[in-house]
Design goal:
Blueprint lengths: L1 H7 L3 H13 L3 H12 L7 H35 L2 H33 L7 H26 L10 H31 L5 H17 L3 H20 L3 H6 L1 H22 L16 H13 L5 H11 L7 H10 L6 H17 L3
Family: Belongs to the 14-3-3 family.
Protein name: 14-3-3 domain-containing protein
Pfam families: 14-3-3 (PF00244)
Length: 355
């Protein structure tokens, strides 16, 4: 029986071929399932397989996030109309999609941690690629929690459900930052500035700083530094290499577009009071400083923390679980990164709260 079961199991080649067919048919869940099975074989992934695994994950997430956006919009529209039945149906469907996004993210995170990183210690390319992918997964979770907070009661400190959502968002953001830092530490030593994986890392990290940490200055610094280093490197290579390494050119174009977008937002006043683009990023030490500042920044608004502690402690009489979350969110037993992230979220939520 065991021999028959083993014989029935698809081979590595069959799984890869299934993933390729699934991609052509746009059946991305099947594609991710097939490549997850390949990764779980425990022998690492080839360059081709690594690309299939990454595209499968991002395609699944893009598809489900698009569905989430549609359902969220429908929920808001029906809520404004007072159509409670339709609104409830949209809420239930949106929560189902949220669960599917989380499931896909944690599936990939577990495979990276338990399988791929363990067999990739000798390859800088693979280490940076997988740490970056892990950071992307947690960044997706943080963005999801951030968006989901908009559908909960928004007051100064919120209900227990909102506190739980904020705690989950903070945890995902911190894990994303840790993974990106590990990727950068390997990339800056082992990968040249024109390496597409290193450029992709800069693109993802700059988005993380800008969108989740609400730090345009650090985001601009990371993106500008990566672009400057790559341009300097390309000036010293032959024209043939420039033509063949199209991935490098593509990522450099994306970085330029990102910087141009942020500058235009600054000019329109979207980031009023925040200076970006005026600091020269002259070496990789500047990028390292951006990571260190994000990691070591300690929230200095002690009065706000004390006020939060007083208000949140009122929940402690209801049950032990609420007490633990309240103490956690009020700053007790929080790391420096968590405090900094909490401060950013709190400022954002307070700013958007209805008067």
């Amino acid at each position: 029986m065991a021999a028959a079961a083993a014989a029935a199991s698809p081979s590595r080649e069959e799984l890869v071929y299934t993933a390729q067919l699934s991609e052509k048919a746009q059946r991305y869940n099947d594609m991710l399932q097939a490549m997850s099975s390949v990764a779980k074989l425990g022998t690492g992934l080839t360059y081709l397989e690594r690309g299939l695994f990454s595209r499968a994950y991002h395609s699944v997430i893009d598809e489900k996030c698009t569905a989430w956006d549609i359902l969220a919009s429908f929920q808001l529209e029906e809520g404004k109309k007072g159509n409670l039945k339709a609104e409830k149906a949209a809420i239930e469907f949106r929560l189902k999609v949220e669960a599917e996004i989380e499931e896909a993210c944690y599936l990939v995170i577990n495979i990276i941690e338990k399988q791929l990183l363990r067999v990739s210690s000798s390859s800088a390319d693979n280490l940076v690629f997988y740490y970056q992918m892990k950071g992307n997964c947690y960044r997706t979770l943080a963005k999801l929690k951030d968006a989901a907070l908009g559908f909960r009661k928004r007051n100064c400190y919120g209900t227990f459900a909102e506190l739980k959502g904020r705690a989950e968002r903070l945890e995902a953001s911190e894990q994303s930052l840790k993974a990106y830092k590990l990727a950068w530490e390997v990339a800056k030593v082992n990968l040249c500035p024109t390496n597409p994986i290193r450029l992709a890392l800069a693109l993802n990290v700059s988005d993380f700083f800008y969108r989740l940490l609400r730090s345009p200055e650090r985001a601009y610094l990371v993106a500008q530094q990566a672009l400057d280093d790559a341009e300097s490197e390309l000036e010293s290579v032959s024209g043939d290499l420039k033509e063949t390494n199209m991935q490098t050119i593509d990522f450099m174009g994306l970085l330029r577009d990102r910087l141009a977008l942020w500058n235009s937002e600054k000019e329109k006043g979207d980031d009023e009071g925040v200076e970006i683009g005026h600091k020269d990023a002259k070496d990789t030490d500047e990028t390292s400083k951006a990571y260190k500042q994000a990691d070591d920044c300690v929230m200095d608004e002690e009065e706000k923390l004390e006020e939060a502690d007083e208000q949140l402690s009122e929940l402690s009489d209801e049950d032990e679980e609420r007490y633990q979350v309240a103490r956690y969110m009020s700053g007790k037993n929080m790391t420096r990164t968590q405090k900094m992230l909490w401060s950013a979220v709190d400022r954002c939520m307070t700013k958007k709260a209805p008067k």
